[in-house]
């Protein structure tokens, strides 16, 4: 018959707490053969110990062995659990370090993206400014060319529609490029 270890542990604690405190008398029926009982009686007489006291000593020794075994088992279980906890703590530290490295990488990438975005915005502004400068320069050149021509522009050039390509070859529509200057 198996007894739950928690019940045994409670019994062991009670027995250990009372083991050396007071000695009382307990009547116990021991199911043994007559041969075993007579052998026990001879042994106790040879040692000079009453039979009941001999049984009590045997009970004490057996309980001490059981308790010691349980303590050793508990100690090994506790050591195993502590080793498991230490291993888990080491894994957790490694994961924390990896998380920290990843957070640093993300921060670096975000700052790089932000800097790239700022550089791109500056480049876009510079390009817009250059395009405006080029358009201004083209208009000035066109004004100078109009001023140098001996005949009016309408006689040398065929009449252009507003949405036709400009006569200067810029690729822009006439209304955007030279219409304001010619008109």
Query: Rough shape?
Result: rod-shaped
Question: N- to C-terminal separation?
Answer: 116 Å
| Overall average pLDDT | 80
Look at the helices and sheets and give the structural class: mainly alpha
* Portion of residues within helices: over 70%
Task: Tally the beta strands.
Answer: 0
Descriptive notes:
The chain is mainly alpha-helical. It has a domain at 31-136. Helices cover 75% and strands 0% of the residues. It is built from six helices and no strands. The mean pLDDT is 80.
Task: Provide a brief overview of the structure.
The chain is mainly α and 183 residues long.
Key words describing this protein structure:
183 residues; mainly alpha; 6 helices
Structural topology:
Blueprint: H1 5-18, H2 34-47, H3 51-148, H4 153-156, H5 174-177, H6 179-182
